[in-house]
Amino acid sequence: MKKKLLAVLMTGIMAASFAGTATVVSADSGDDNTLTVWAWDQNFNIKSMQMAGEQYAKDHEGFAVDVIETSSDDCQTKLTTAANAGDYSTLPDIVLMQDNSYQKYLKSYPDAFTDLKDININWDDFGKLKQSYSMVDDTHYGVPFDNGAVIACYRTDILEEAGYTLDDLTDITWSKFMEIGKDLHEKTGKYLLTSEATGGDTLMMMMQSCGANFVNEDGEAYIVGNEVAEKCINLYVDLVKNDVVKLVNNWDEYIATITGGEAAGIVNGNWITATLMSTEDQKGLWEITTMPKVDDVDTATNYANNGGSSWYITSNCKNVELAEDFLASTFGSSTDFYDAILPASGAISCYLPAGESEVYNEPNEFFNGQPIFSTIVEYSSHIPEFTKTPYHYEARECVNTAVVNIVNGTSVEDALQEAQDTLAFKMTE
Predict the structure, then answer these.
(1) For the chain, N or C: smaller number of CB within 10 Å?
(2) Is 201 inside any structural domain?
């Protein structure tokens, strides 16, 4: 299971940076019973799609999926090329896209995708936030795949050394987290949280947990004058300055603080469990719970999202009815299917009923017997919606730079204004 779950890490928020090689295969299978699919991880989303095809074929003789390995970056590049040429014939029937990337492509190239107005899916079986990633004006375009719900993970042995338990860190505020973190650092020399300086994930998760973003509903940069943004940024800076958060330079250092025991906690998308489970010597020492929520914000919650992807039917699909029925019958409604792919690929469901199954409720030895998979699914049902932007990654980069500048001595006002101006410029490119 550990090796299989590692695929989740490789396809979370970092998936876009992995340049898997695209197989040179025609997007047109020439067979009405075969659906072509673009996806990018052999052990994760490709494996899950192949298993979906096998399940569907049991009741649909002659059905098959032709999965063409195509990196996330290549999916986006090929889509852009096709749109600019005004020719979508090179696209597959179904394409996997990261949730944080999709809005940009739907808004830029709406003719590239088929709406799912007629698909037989009970959308209430998925969390509102997950649905919203692939919606425009109340119309669905994507079928949810993997779960990006945020979890907080803690080393219970380090907490115990400082006189704390998991209960002390469950459903708390960031101010309480600050209090515990300062005390833990004084007693143990360790940090309560580690965060990557170049990633900006922690700050984005804080914002999302409040149902907020760094853009407004008009699609404009909204950092300066954004009370929630300023509160989150100031809070994050205080966490770093008070030795509660260990701010590291890159992903490798981030992982090292986790596996090396320098940090007692992590707040990230649930795919981070793969990294934890690779450390055999820490088996049974980790437990998960909810993330802290931002103080004095009416919309604040203990839930956020980081990562995830969904399946989309392109306008080149020759048999939309078949594609809709296939996706609806597997990813859209089958607990048995999600029970099968969890141990095989590590893919954690966004389909809420799956969280009630025996497979999802099995105690996990690494996490001290916690049924972490059912818990993660349950968390995904509580994540608040927030304003989507085609410029998610640009916004993340700008505010993260602001944080680093503030930590290094730049005034808050100057750093936020620079972030505002930079993001506004990027949104015009």
Answers:
(1) C
(2) yes
User: What are 191's two structure tokens?
Assistant: 């940090």
Domain count, the chain: 2
> Model confidence at 407, in pLDDT bands (50, 70, 90)?
confident
Q: What Å distances lie between residue 7 and 59, 243, 321, 342, CA to CA?
A: 29, 32, 31, 11
Q: How far apart are CA 45 and CA 145, in angstroms?
A: 9
Instruction: List, in sequence order, every residue forming a beta bridge with 318; answer none if it has no partner.
Output: none
Residue 422 located in a structural domain:
yes
The overall pTM is greater than 0.85? yes
Instruction: Read off the tokens for 98.
Output: 């990261």
Per-residue pLDDT of 161-196, as tens digits, reads 999 999 999 999 999 999 999 999 999 999 999 998
If asked whether residues 286 and 346 sit together in one domain, one would say no
- Whether 347 and 45 have beta carbons less than 8 Å apart is answered as yes
User: For 80-196, where are the E strands, in sequence order?
Assistant: 94-98, 135-136, 139-140, 142-144, 150-155, 193-196
Write out 272-308 in H/E/C secondary structure: HHHHHHCCHHHCCCEEEECCCECCCCCCCCCCCECCC
Block residue for tokens 């966004």: 350
pLDDT at res. 30:
57
Neighbours of 396 (CB within 10 A): 20
Is 90 exceeded by the pLDDT of residue 65?
Answer: yes
Q: Are residues 189 and 291 in the same domain?
A: yes
Judgement on whether residues 219 and 297 belong to the same structural domain of the protein: yes
pLDDT of residue 7: 37
Residue 56 has pLDDT above 90, yes or no: yes
Smallest CA-to-CA distance from 263 within 234, 239, 280, 293 is with 239
